[in-house]
Amino acid sequence: MAIPPLELQVVEIKLRAYCEKVPTEVRDRLLHVFFIKRHDVVLAEKRPHWRDPSEWVETPVAKFKYAATQRMWQLFYQDRNLKWRQYEPRFEASNFEELLQEVDQDPNCIFWG
């Protein structure tokens, strides 16, 4: 089931604000972007390719999945094999912003390195 429209609107507002936190003076070298597909929201980082700076490379940072039956958000990270894994210790929350803050703070250095 897709994300409810009102919840989706809140998520888009929060993520746009989060992505805008990248300082303007480095946006030619770093961008934060997100995309939404059905019940998944992926936050990614974009940087110029090291060989050809005119091409940009997108690297997923975190995935938020909406579980409609529980009305909960779940948080995932991508492992070295590019598989999505449940984030521990904070896998789910009813409030999207709580999980976005967890990604931002990155206490285990799993999202931003």
Low-confidence stretches: none
Instruction: State the distance separating the first and last CA atoms.
Output: 32 Å
* Largest sheet report: 6 strands, antiparallel
Shape: globular
Give keywords:
globular, 113 residues, 6-stranded antiparallel β-sheet, 6 strands, 2 helices, 35% strand, alpha+beta
How would you describe this protein?
- The chain has 113 residues and is of the alpha+beta class.
- The protein has one domain (5-105).
- The protein is 22% helix and 35% strand.
- It is built from two helices and six strands.
- Strands 1, 2, 3, 4, 5 and 6 form a six-stranded antiparallel β-sheet that branches.
- The radius of gyration is 14 Å and the shape is globular.
Write the topology of this structure:
Layout: H1 5-19, E1 31-37, E2 40-48, E3 56-67, E4 72-78, E5 84-86, E6 92-93, H2 96-105
Antiparallel strand pairs: 1-2, 2-3, 3-4, 4-5, 4-6
Describe this structure in a few short sentences.
With 113 residues, this protein is α+β, with helices and mostly antiparallel strands. Helices cover 22% and strands 35% of the residues.
